[in-house]
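Budget justification, computational time. The allocation requested in the original proposal was used primarily to generate structure tokens for proteins on the priority list. As evidence of use, we reproduce two of the resulting records. The first is shown immediately below.
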Amino acid sequence: MPEYPKSGPDDHPQRFQSKWFKTFNWLEYSPTTDAAYCFSCFFFEKKSFGKFGSDTFTAQGFKNWKRIGGKICAFETHMGKDINSAHGYYVQSWKDFKNLKSHIDTLLENLTPKQNADNRLRLGASIEVVRWLTFQKCAFRGHDESAKSKIKEIF
């Protein structure tokens, strides 16, 4: 985008800067909302941490351009001080997702024929157990081996 729209007070309007993309590789900008988002947090966050402003870079979008740069940069605050921050966790999730060697289809392709046969045998046995439990109207969970139990030692 050649020039981003100005926002803020009329006497000192601010705008998104394209140079921020180089410094913060996780940054995404939406021209529709004129707001910045965190790509990794947006796609990999399972639930909000419940902190005030925790959805700023995922749902609401960040628009306070004057808080970028300077002593307390909002983007750096979002990133956190260490790798164990929520943002750090989602960035690692993003890296893991991009690693094709860890995808399930790649792992399954690399199985030996014996491992494949063993997995099919286990799956078949599990399906038979589910069918039997369903037919007998037994619970799929629980373990009651007490003296009063009517269905002890099923398996």
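The second record produced under the same allocation is shown here.
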Amino acid sequence: MLEIQASKIVNTVTFTVDKQSIAQAQAAANNLQKHFEKLANPKIRFQAQKQRRQKAREQIADSKSAIPKTSSDVKQQRIAEKAAKAQAREAAKIAKRNETADLKFRSARLQLGGLKHPITAAEEYRVLSTAKRVTEEFKQGTRSAASMNQAIREEITLLRRISTIRAKQTAQIKEQQRIEAKNYTGTAKRLKGGKGEAALLNKSDFG
């Protein structure tokens, strides 16, 4: 059987009734109250100690982080930052070149579709193949923007001239065929009319 023994705390304050005694009595009472508060609230005391330890650890960590970096550390950090900025600029440059090349290729395709005179499928394929090749070279950095634009412009200009000449030739041929057909019709009518007159003359002769 578990026996629990409780000790009784007896506090006796003895004083005479004068100002000094009253002050001493008040101080003793305050100290006694604080003592009982600590005994009654061990959890609060533990939390306060825990907070003080946590604060001390944070102060130590802050002091470590506040240690100034050496010149070597600063130099390495600057080199790393400079390299990162250079990589970012290069990536942006590549992205810009790719975007420019893609826009130029789409522009070439639209120009072919907007030609006044029709072109053949083989002609369209040839020009688009050239446009694809030069735009890829521009992406790789082996061809300048001016060279890319010039190559595509020359191909489209040449094809435009060819299609214009072919359209004119086709129109001339059609016009010639129209004239020949008209002449043939007129000749046939005249021949038919001549035969009719000859038949009438022959008929009158026999009459």
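A brief technical remark on that second record: Residues 9 and 25 are 18 Å apart (CA to CA).
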